[in-house]
Amino acid sequence: MASRRETSPVREHRPIAQRRAQLLTAAAEVMREQGVAAATTRAIAERAGLPHGSVHYCFGTKTALLRAVVQSEVDRSVERAWRRAAGSTDLEGVLRGVLEAQLDSVREDPGHHAMLDELIALARRDPALADLPGWEHERYVSAATDLISELPTTIGLDLARPAREIATMIMVLAAGLSDLWTATENRSELDRALDDCVRGLAARLSRPA
After folding, report:
1. Torsion-angle region of 152 (φ positive above 0: left; ψ -120 to 50: alpha; else: beta)
2. Which run of H or of E encompasses 197?
3. How many CB atoms lie within 10 A of CB 142?
4. pTM higher than 0.85 for the full model?
5. What letters, b where the CB count within 10 A reaches 16 and e where it falls short, cover 103-135?
6. Dihedral of CA 101/137/176/88: which sign?
7. Cβ atoms within 10 Å of 51's Cβ, excluding its own
8. How does pLDDT run across 25-53, given as a tens digit for each residue?
9. Domain 14-60 adopts which CATH fold?
10. Are 152 and 209 in contact (CB under 8 A)?
11. Three-point CA angle 129, 135, 140, nearest 5°
């Protein structure tokens, strides 16, 4: 009886863009659940259901993958915040929309917030990623500046300060309020602080046109 030759299973060919997206999702999941140290290339590839070599094929290096994770997650956070602020009819509404979107992310998915903090801390120690903290800050501030700059046209608002200064204040408030929640997890205290910040800043920075 002739022996049957065993053959290796045929691997499904996936476009590189699809594999990159799978690896980004897998890397974020591993780091959210187990921390950045657990995100080895093997663990990421296994979570994505891809061969181990896929990380290097799609990104070149693990460092490049980590950079892409930060950029992808920050872009997603910016999109969520700006979508929340869309349709606001005054500066207070814009401020509240952006800040609440950031705070919702911290409250609803603390693992995601911790992951980004850990990645940014790693970037400060790694020369190959040293530009990421500055990039993250600029990404948020630039997006907020664009949004604030449109208010004089969209809702007839006369800004008392340059749009970029207001955007920077928003980011400072977002960081402070996020730290307050992380430290206390006191919803009523956070809501009071948010209300005071939004009303005070809006009153100071806007003038009716």
Report:
1. alpha
2. helix 187-205
3. 13
4. no
5. bebbbeeeebbbbbebbbebbeeeeebeebeeb
6. negative
7. 12
8. 999 999 999 999 999 999 999 999 999 99
9. Arc Repressor Mutant, subunit A (1.10.10)
10. yes
11. 145
117 sits in the region (left: phi over 0; alpha: psi -120 to 50; else beta) called: alpha
Q: Which residue from 28, 49, 46 is spatially nearest to 114, judged by alpha carbons?
A: 28
CA distance to 42, 142, 185, per residue, from 94 (Å): 43, 15, 24
DSSP assignment of 126-148 equals -GGGTTHHHHHHHHHHHHHHHHH
Q: Provide the pLDDT confidence category of residue 169 given band limits of 50, 70 and 90.
A: very high
Element (H, E) at 204: helix 187-205
- With bands split at pLDDT 50, 70 and 90, how would you rate the model's confidence at 150? confident
Tell me which CATH code domain 69-208 carries: 1.10.357.10
CA quadruple 78, 84, 85, 86: dihedral sign: positive
**Quick check: helix, strand or coil at residue 206?**
strand
Alpha helices, DSSP H, located in 109-186: 110-125, 132-149, 151-154, 163-184
Domain boundaries, the chain: 14-60, 69-208
